[in-house]
Amino acid sequence: MQIELSLIAELVLSCTKPLIINGPSDRSSRYVFEQNFFIISQQALEIREKILGPQSVDTATMYNNVGCCMFFLERVEESYNYFDIAHAIFELELGPFHYRTLTVKTLIQKWFF
C-alpha cells in the first residue's frame, strides 16, 4: 500500500509540476499550494533515491525541485543545501558545462550570492 501511494505521489508530481508557475495568486492560498507541492516533491525524491540511487541525474532533478519548493517557502538555508547536492550530482554525472549543471549553478549564484 505504501509503495502504491508513493507511485501516486510521483505521478501527481509529474502532472502538477507545471502548475507551480500558475498556482494561486493570493499569499495564503499560494503558501498552502507550495507546501503541498513540497510534500509531494519530497515523496518523489524518496522514491527516486530508493529506486535510482542517490547519485542519479533524475534524483538530482528532484533535489533541485525540493530546493525550489523550500526557497519559495522561505526555508532558504535548507534550499541551498538541496541545490548544492543537485549541482554536485549534475557536475559529476553530466559535466560542468551541461545545461542542467549550469542552470542549478545560475540559480545558486542568483538566489544566494
Describe the structure.
- This protein is mostly helical.
- It has a single domain, classed as Tetratricopeptide repeat domain (Serine Threonine Protein Phosphatase 5, Tetratricopeptide repeat), CATH 1.25.40.
- It is built from five helices and no strands.
- It has helices at residues 2-16, 27-52, 57-72, 76-94, 99-112.
- Helix 2 runs antiparallel to helix 3, helix 3 runs antiparallel to helix 4 and helix 4 (76-94) packs antiparallel against helix 5.
- It is globular, with a radius of gyration of 14 Å.
- The termini are far apart.
- 23% of the residues are buried.
List keywords for this structure.
single chain; 113 residues; mainly alpha; Serine Threonine Protein Phosphatase 5, Tetratricopeptide repeat; globular; disordered N terminus
Secondary structure elements and pairings:
Blueprint: H1 2-16, H2 27-52, H3 57-72, H4 76-94, H5 99-112
- The beta-strand count equals 0
C-alpha end-to-end distance: 44 Å
Number of continuous helical runs: 5
Give the strand content: under 5%
- Overall spatial form: globular
CATH fold label: Serine Threonine Protein Phosphatase 5, Tetratricopeptide repeat
Provide the residue-averaged pLDDT: 81
Q: Radius of gyration over alpha carbons? A: 14 Å
Task: Write a brief caption for the model.
This protein has helices spanning 2-16, 27-52, 57-72, 76-94, 99-112.
